[in-house]
Amino acid sequence: MAETGGAVTVRVAVDAPQHSGLNGPLDYASEQALASGTLVRVPLGKRELLGVVWPGEAVGQPEMALRPVAAVFSVLPPLGADWCRLLDFAAGYYQRSVGELASAVLPPQLRELSPEQLAARLRKLDKKPASAAVAEPVKPPLAPEQAEAVARIQAQLASDSPKPALLFGVTGSGKTEVYLRAAEAALAAGRQVLVLVPEINLTPQLEARFTERFAATCPEPLAIVSLHSALTPAQRLQNWLAAHLGRARLVLGTRLAVFASMPELGLIVVDEEHDPSYKQQDGARYSARDLAVWRAHDLKVPVVLGSATPSLESWQHAESGRYERLTLAARIGGGALPRVKLFDMKALPPTAGVTTALTAPLLAELKARLERREQSLVFLNRRGYAPVLHCGECQWKSDCPHCSAWRVFHKRDRTLRCHHCGFTERVPSACPNCGNPDIAPIGRGTERLEEQLAEALPGARVLRIDADSTRRKGELEAQLKAVHDGDVDILVGTQMIAKGHDFRRIRFVAAVNPDGALFSSDFRAPERLFALLMQAGGRAGRDASSDSPAEMWVQTWHREHALYQALARHDYVRFAKTQLDERRSAGLPPFSHLALLRAEARTVEAAKAFLVAAAALLQDEQLLVYPPVPHAVARVADVERMQMLVEATQRARLQASLRDWVPALIALKREHKAVLRWAVDVDPLAI
């Protein structure tokens, strides 16, 4: 902070557009000295924006007339130095401006409010009534492995330099109870707790568990809050303020919550840490899991990463001793893991009328489970009725005119819908190419599977849960309640239902058509498929009191594949070793470090020319720059997408090169006016 003739110069992080080249905080004149972390409103161009007074010395230039700060949010305590450090690190690592990142992670409503309006919101918080007194809940006894894990985490809470803990527990082994006990210890020590989950649909379930456990110990209003994108702007601001003021002792949220301002943070939990949802796919493409580990290290507090199928990066850190591994190898209550049966599709006799999804043996098994009044789950990772409509005369298929992808047939509303750009049309009555009225669906999605199951098993109560069936508010909660209450016999769904849900009544899981990921060009596809199938299988047999064995069937054309063989034995350790050996020999992450430069333009030539010119700017011989290639879905909404991979053996080397490269790319974009957008993705998940 510098003084210039009575006024004080302050640095303010403000959301300046990346192409402007204004990446760092900007200088403004203030009538009073302002603590770093103070929220302010400042002019930028013709607009007035929310900004944060940033730590560090302002460069006071007396001859420059600085614009004054327009308003100061003095009613709110400043954001902490640790929060500013987290933002500084994330902005630097993921190559974004700190102002852009701050604007993206603060509650949107803060941008619209004046200091007076914010003061009114804070008064409203003070008037929140306390919860009614409730009795202390009965805690379930801990299994020996759980007790050992809890003791190790509690020891880390007391340590000056705790190590990240990888809680490797099979599905149904009681990981949530370990989180609850760890949170209990942190809360008892007067600290705040942050719990991250990958998807919004898991937040209400976990929130109910934590509220039930801690309602007696945290009766104050807003002591337990959630932070995710499904909240209204007013709810999001209220919950963020509660965390920032220290009133919220426990914050549950999706990836954005890793940036929650929590002045007394003492423990971070990342549930299902392997899940790709923790990686932001636009704007600042950060990984919430990696930032959680960095934040815990910076604050010297424990972080617990939990999963039945850890990411190979986390597993490698545990193998090398960087993370402490805590293992829960047995299910709670003596429940057995489902027996996995690999069903060889090649051995099936070719029978007329038998589809590749609903085979005769599968229907017979579902019928037997129905007769025993058991729930079943049929898992197919493709929504919609069928991937494409097809004309047998001229071979027309329902492609999207704006994307290099097929439009999916949705029977319920008789539409063809592109899942990439959203382009939707009514289903044509005849082939638009040759006029043939006999156009038919090829392949199947969850919608068609639901219909076929209802036809094949009359009387069965079939329910589909996917992104299409849960669009309206409250639909997902109502559908999950129906499953838990036993009002559903067969559940059909996508990966949405494979994660984290504690379905006590399901005894049988069938995975149909999972083979596609085995032959993907993305080296992470096998890891994702294995995790998804292990998670789907983990929904079965969670209640140990049932007599019949829990089973999972995988209908595959590649029964001998190493991935399925490891799955049949529930052998994640063997699968991880094989995958890591392959990645080590191929020089792939976690043994190398990647960045992806993406470019979008109206023509392939324009996007490619930008990437070729960008490659020429990288002068480091220790970096490997691959030639530009089209994105997996090369065209979306009439925009061509190309990408170029940069690989380094050392993370620091890659970061140093990116720091010089990104400003040069901003200048390069001015020469390549045909390029609509470009972005650098550090540690990309989808290649």
Automatic annotation (TrEMBL):
Binding site for Zn(2+) 2: C400, C403, C418, C421
EC annotation from Swiss-Prot or TrEMBL: 5.6.2.4
Sequence ranges assigned to domain Helicase ATP-binding in this UniProt record: 156-328
Amino-acid positions noted as binding Zn(2+) 1 in the UniProt annotation, renumbered to this chain: C391, C394, C431, C434
Keyword flag Transmembrane: no
Single GO MF descriptor: hydrolase activity
Note describing how the cofactor binds: Binds 2 zinc ions per subunit.
Pfam family, one: DEAD
Keyword terms of this UniProt record: ATP-binding, DNA replication, DNA-binding, Helicase, Hydrolase, Isomerase, Metal-binding, Nucleotide-binding, Primosome, Zinc
Catalytic reactions of this protein: ATP + H2O = ADP + phosphate + H(+); Couples ATP hydrolysis with the unwinding of duplex DNA by translocating in the 3'-5' direction
Cofactor(s) this protein requires: Zn(2+)
Self-association and partners: Component of the replication restart primosome.
Annotated function: Initiates the restart of stalled replication forks, which reloads the replicative helicase on sites other than the origin of replication. Recognizes and binds to abandoned replication forks and remodels them to uncover a helicase loading site. Promotes assembly of the primosome at these replication forks.
Family membership noted in the UniProt record: Belongs to the helicase family. PriA subfamily.
Protein name as it appears in the record: Replication restart protein PriA
Lineage, top ranks: Bacteria, Pseudomonadati, Pseudomonadota, Betaproteobacteria, Burkholderiales
